[in-house]
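Input.
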Amino acid sequence: GVSSGRSECVNNTFFFVCVCVFLLLLLIMGVPGASFQASPPDKGSFPLDHEGECKHLMKVFLECLKVNKNNQRKCRVESKAYLNCRMERELMAQEEWRKLGYKDVDDMEKHVVDDAVERHSSSMNNNKQKKASNINNSNKDKDKDK
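Output.
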């Protein structure tokens, strides 16, 4: 009686462990002959901007996020401008603004983006000038050492 109950318990445990190992192997290795079907994203594909056509607006948006401590609500005009650039250049599918959550962002606020683009461009030019000045100064220092 007792020994047959133990062997039945051991057999059940062994069977359970074998089934678990088999299922784990199926998860890891996949089902033989089955293939994985990837599904496209809900809003379509988003090709990379290889030509950098919208890069300036992306940088303006990222700068806005930085200045506003990643508070996206304060950068909605900039993000809308970036998405608009992508849609105009067919880097993403055309979509209604209300479906993207931008029905409340007025296009009349475009001056905000224009100002941000101007600030970004001037800061980029200032950085280039500083680098050029630093290179010139280091070259002058090298000439003095000679």
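The mean pLDDT is 74.
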